[in-house]
Write a structure and sequence with these properties.
The termini are far apart. The protein has an 8-stranded mixed beta sheet, sandwiched between helices. A 6-stranded mixed beta sheet has the order 2-3-1-4-5-6, with helices on both faces. It is α/β, with parallel strands linked by helices. The chain has 2 domains: 272 residues, no CATH class; 188 residues, no CATH class. The chain has 13 helices and 17 strands. Helix 3 packs parallel to helix 4, helix 7 packs antiparallel against helix 8 and helix 9 packs across helix 10. The structure holds zinc ion.
C-alpha cells in the first residue's frame, strides 16, 4: 500500500503591507494537523485529497500540518521555521512513498527571499531523492525556476476566481499515482515571463488570461502531462517576482522547456492588456451614481484582503461620504477592533463617534471622522460557502454595523481581517443586498464567484492601498529590475 503524506503551508505575502502575518492569522483561517475532516466536501485542495483517498483506498494518507492565512504582510521568521520544522519532522525517516504539498507560491517571510523554494528544498532533503513529491500552487504564484527540479510533478489553479482548487489537487495526485505505478516519468521546467502583472484583468472567464489558459490547455496531451501559466502576485517583492509558466512532460526535458517558453511568450505578447487605467475613488462614485440600475458594486482593489489589503484604507469611504451621502450605501468593510469594542459598549441604537480608516497605517490616507448609530452587532465567524472558498470557515471576529449620522451610508466594521467575497458576511448582519444602491467592497475579482449576477454593474477604482494597481509606484527592491513595468516608469 503506497503511503502518502500531505501538508499545506499556503500564504500570499504582500511586501508593501504594514502588518506582519502571525500564527493567530493562520489559526483564524486554517491551522490543523492529523486529519482534514473539516474540509470534507469542500472545493479545496484538502477536499481533493479526501476525494482521492475515497477513490483510491489502496493509498494510505497521513495529514501533517495544514496551515493557511489570509494574504498579508510577510510571515514572522520564527513561525516559518516552526511550521517547516514540523512538516520536515513529520516526514524524515517515515518512509513515505509520496508527499503532496499544497502551497501558494508567493509566500513572503521576513529576511528570507524565496520561502516556497526553501520549504520545498527542505522537504526534498527530508524525503530523499527517490520519494515522489507533488506540489500545487495558486495561479498567482511567483515561482523560482529551481523548484522544477526539486519536485516530481506540480500543477496550479487554472481559474480566477479560483474555483478549481479541488481539481488542481486531484491532478497532482493523479500524476503522482501514475508516476508511482511506473506509467510516466515527469520532468518539468519553470520559465519566467518578462513582466510583473496586476491581477485586475486576470480573470479567466474572458480576456488575456483566458486566452493564455486556453493555449496551455491545448498543449496538454501526448508527452505534455501538464502546462500551467502563472499570472504571479504583483506585491511579493522577491527575486522570483513576475509571471511565468510551468510545464511537465513525460521524460522530455527539452519539450518541457520549449513549451514553458511558448507560454511565457503568450503572456508577454498580451502584457499591456493586463495594465488597465481605473478611475479614482471619487470618479468611481460619480460613475456609480450615473448608473440607472442598482445595486452597483464599487470595488476598492487597492485594499483587497486577498491581495494583502488591510481593510483600513480610507479613500473610498471619504469619496462615498462626499459624493453619495444620501444614497443608500453599504461599505464592506473596515477592520478596527477598538471601534467594534466601543460599538459593543455603546449597544445597538447608541451613538458613537470616532474615525474610520488610516488606523493601521497612515500611508494610504488620513482617517475619516464620523458620528454614527450602532445598527447591529454580530459574530463574524461562519461556514464558508462555495464556489470560491479559502478554507472551511470565514472569521472576521466580531462585527458592528454602523450608520453614519445624517446619511444613508452603512459601514461594516470587524475585529479581524478576512475577505468579504463570501455573502455570509451579509447574512451575519441580516443585510439585504437589494436594499442598497451602492455597495463598496474591498475586493478585486474573487467576490464575483458568489456575487455573479447580483450587481447591475461592477466599477473598480484604484485608491491608495497596499495592493494599488499602479505597481510601478511601489518601492521594489528585490524583484529583477528588467521586469516590466519596473524599468518602464508608471505602468
Ligand atoms: Zn490567487
Amino acid at each position: 500500500m503506497p503511503r502518502l503524506a500531505v501538508a499545506m503551508f499556503s500564504h500570499e505575502g504582500n511586501s508593501f503591507s504594514p502588518i506582519a502575518t502571525r500564527r493567530a492569522d493562520f489559526e483564524a483561517a486554517v491551522w490543523c494537523a492529523g486529519d482534514a475532516a473539516a474540509f470534507a466536501g469542500t472545493p479545496t485542495e484538502m477536499g481533493g485529497v479526501l476525494a482521492f483517498g475515497e477513490a483510491r483506498p489502496d493509498w494510505e494518507i497521513s495529514f501533517l500540518r495544514l496551515a493557511q492565512a489570509t494574504p498579508g504582510g510577510p510571515i514572522e521568521p520564527a513561525l516559518f521555521e516552526v511550521v517547516v520544522d514540523e512538516i520536515v519532522a513529520g516526514l524524515a525517516g517515515q518512509g513515505f512513498d509520496a508527499v503532496y504539498l499544497a502551497l501558494h507560491g508567493a509566500m513572503m517571510v521576513e529576511g528570507r527571499d524565496l520561502a516556497d523554494l526553501d520549504l520545498i528544498g527542505r522537504v526534498r532533503a527530508a524525503i530523499g531523492p527517490d520519494a515522489l513529491l507533488g506540489v500545487s500552487f495558486d495561479l498567482h504564484a511567483n515561482l523560482d525556476p529551481a523548484i522544477a527540479s526539486l519536485v516530481t510533478v506540480a500543477s496550479g489553479y487554472k481559474t480566477h476566481p479560483h474555483v478549481d482548487q479541488r481539481e488542481t489537487a486531484l491532478r497532482v495526485l493523479d500524476l503522482l499515482a501514475r508516476t508511482a505505478a511506473g506509467e510516466i516519468r515527469p520532468v518539468g521546467a519553470i520559465v519566467k515571463a518578462g513582466a510583473i502583472l496586476p491581477s485586475i484583468e486576470m480573470r479567466t472567464d474572458a480576456g488575456p488570461m483566458a486566452e493564455i489558459e486556453a493555449e496551455a490547455a491545448a498543449m496538454i496531451g501526448g508527452a505534455i502531462l501538464e502546462a500551467v501559466p502563472f499570472g504571479g502576485f504583483a506585491y511579493a517583492d522577491t527575486a522570483a517576482a513576475g509571471a511565468g509558466a510551468m510545464v511537465f512532460t513525460d521524460d522530455d526535458p527539452a519539450l518541457a522547456r520549449a513549451a514553458a517558453e511558448r507560454l511565457c511568450a503568450a503572456i508577454d505578447a498580451r502584457r499591456d492588456r493586463f495594465f488597465t487605467a481605473l478611475p479614482t475613488a471619487s470618479e468611481a462614485v460619480a460613475q456609480a451614481l450615473a448608473c440607472r440600475e442598482r445595486p452597483v458594486a464599487l470595488v476598492d482593489a487597492g485594499d483587497n484582503p486577498l491581495s494583502g489589503g488591510i481593510a483600513d484604507t480610507p479613500e473610498l469611504l471619504r469619496a462615498l461620504l462626499a459624493g453619495a451621502r444620501q444614497v443608500p450605501s453599504l461599505l464592506l468593510y473596515h477592520c478596527d477592533p477598538a471601534l467594534v469594542e466601543a460599538a459593543g459598549r455603546t449597544g445597538c441604537g447608541g451613538r458613537i463617534a470616532g474615525t474610520l480608516g488610516g488606523t493601521r497605517s497612515a500611508a494610504f490616507g488620513e482617517p475619516v471622522p464620523f458620528v454614527a448609530r450602532v445598527v447591529a452587532l454580530a459574530s463574524g465567524r461562519f461556514a464558508a460557502r462555495p464556489p470560491f472558498i479559502c478554507g472551511p470557515w470565514m472569521d472576521f471576529g466580531q462585527l458592528a454595523l454602523l450608520r453614519i449620522e445624517d446619511s444613508a451610508v452603512h459601514v461594516v466594521v470587524s475585529t479581524a481581517i478576512a475577505s468579504p467575497h463570501d455573502p455570509g458576511l451579509l447574512d451575519a448582519l441580516a443585510l439585504d443586498l437589494d436594499s442598497f444602491d451602492l455597495v463598496c467592497i474591498k475586493a478585486k475579482n474573487h467576490f464575483r464567484a458568489a456575487y455573479a449576477g447580483r450587481f447591475k454593474q461592477i466599477i473598480a477604482c484604484d485608491a491608495p492601498g497596499p495592493a494599488a494597481l499602479d505597481i510601478a509606484r511601489f518601492d521594489f527592491r528585490r524583484a529583477p529590475a528588467h521586469l516590466y513595468p519596473l524599468h518602464a516608469g508608471a505602468g
